[in-house]
Amino acid sequence: MALIDLGRGGGGGGRGRGAPAKPRLVMIVADPGRESTAAMEWALSHSIVEGDDILLLHVNMPHPNNGAAGPGPSRSSSGGTTGSPIAALLGGGSADGGDFMEAMRAACKARYPRARVVGKRVEPATEGREAKAQTILAESQRRGVELLVIGHRRFPSFLGLRSSSGSSRAHDSTAEFLIEHSKCLCVSVQKKGQNAGYLLNTKTHKNFWLLA
User: Which segments show compositional bias classed as Gly residues (predicted)?
Assistant: First the structure.
């Protein structure tokens, strides 16, 4: 029995018999790294169903060093995505210069050929520490997203980051901001090794372990 209600079914409640159900819109935050790949893997295998629309959203945040766009696909495979079909479509972490957004879109179409998959790049709507999170939040609300999926990035503990509870646990402020403020269901996803499963967080479920 699923312990997290993912709102499957396209929201057909309340419509007359025979009335077409409005497609559910699922937004996946798209970034060129293994965290985003893991989030997409989980979404495609555990949350998206036939009839859903998929929106891949990337926020063009400036690079902190030179103002250029963020780095290319991560070469690290410690997140356990290398070797999966999706990782293969993403280039398996190789520096081939491919467009990660197009690779992610192709992976979604390969899993759900009839799905409407759109990749969208947007500029930050605000400035400051929460610019990325606020931009994703605004886009999800404007587009009527029903499920928001984001990869949960884990930072080295020596950075001294603290969670909202005051603990010294390293955390991803963007994911936590979206979980707290999203009107729709927001799920952050962290993959634990190749076959160890996923660690999920929502507003009502903390560190929920899902086997692969």
Answer: 7-17
Nearest to 202 by CA among 186, 190, 189, 191: 186
Domain boundary assignment for the chain: 25-62+71-210
155 contacts 33 by C-beta, under 8 angstroms: no
Pairing between strand 147-151 and 25-29? parallel
Pairing assessment for the beta strands 185-191 and 147-151 based on DSSP bridges: parallel
What are 57's strand-pairing partners? 29, 120
pLDDT per residue of the chain (212 residues) written in tens, 0 to 9: 356 777 665 444 444 455 567 899 999 999 998 999 999 999 999 999 999 999 999 999 987 654 444 444 333 333 444 445 566 665 544 434 458 999 999 999 999 999 999 999 999 988 888 999 999 999 999 999 999 999 988 755 444 444 444 443 446 799 999 999 999 999 999 988 777 789 999 999 888 888 75
Burial class (CB in 10 A: 0-12, 13-18, 19+), 79: buried
Amino acid identity, position 123: E
Domain 25-62+71-210 grouped into CATH 3.40.50.720? no
